[in-house]
Amino acid sequence: MADSTNAAVAPRVCVVCNKAEVELSTGSGLKRCSRCQKATYCSKECQTAHWPQHKTVCRCPGTTRTNPTTTPLRPPHPLLFNYFKDFDTESKTFEMLIDAFRLRCDDDYAWGAHYHGIYGRKPPLPVFRDFLARAKAAGMLPRWWDEEKEKECVRMAMEDEHFNIKFAVEKHDIVEHYEDRLMPMTLRMAAENVYGGGYGMGQRPMPEDYVCQC
């Protein structure tokens, strides 16, 4: 009888194309779904193609799909906790909230395979309202923030020519608009404080009870 410790271990494969990890170029390896840590992919293209099917079963370990949490979380970047409170005007605060949200949506799509809002060909407003609710619950909004100010912010987000959640924004757009190569990092860190985590390199993983608005 063969020793069980010497039994061959089935190679990990991409769940889409069945390409084995040993077939990939040295150092690349298979990538795991950043949310459930179970599904494995050989490329972003395979992950993107699989998401419509995978999102119905994708869960953070040990969690179930419930209503989005708005429980305040310890901010990953305490120095930016008051970021949305420090602008001179209300309109500037609205602008920064909108751009932080828009860049986060692009990062969610690129790194986390979350197709919410315009990336999922759905209305972006419910996702933006969820973003504002989380920011408020975390204590990140100015003291003057109330229902009327939220309506003004939402109105700008839906009607403004530039700061509009119906249009995507990427890193290079942010750099060009603000003429600041560090602005994308600042907005990403501010958004990470809102959600309690993020996707991509250098970000703290999302909280286990996070529920995506896809």
TrEMBL record:
Gene Ontology MF terms in the entry: DNA-binding transcription factor activity, RNA polymerase II-specific; zinc ion binding
Signal peptide: none
Keywords (A to Z) from UniProt: Metal-binding, Zinc, Zinc-finger
Assigned GO CC terms: nucleus
Tagged with keyword Zinc-finger: yes
Span of domain MYND-type: 14-58
Pfam families, alphabetized: zf-MYND
Listed InterPro entries: TF_DEAF-1 (IPR024119), Znf_MYND (IPR002893)
Protein name per its UniProtKB record: MYND-type domain-containing protein
Lineage start: Eukaryota, Fungi, Dikarya, Ascomycota, Pezizomycotina
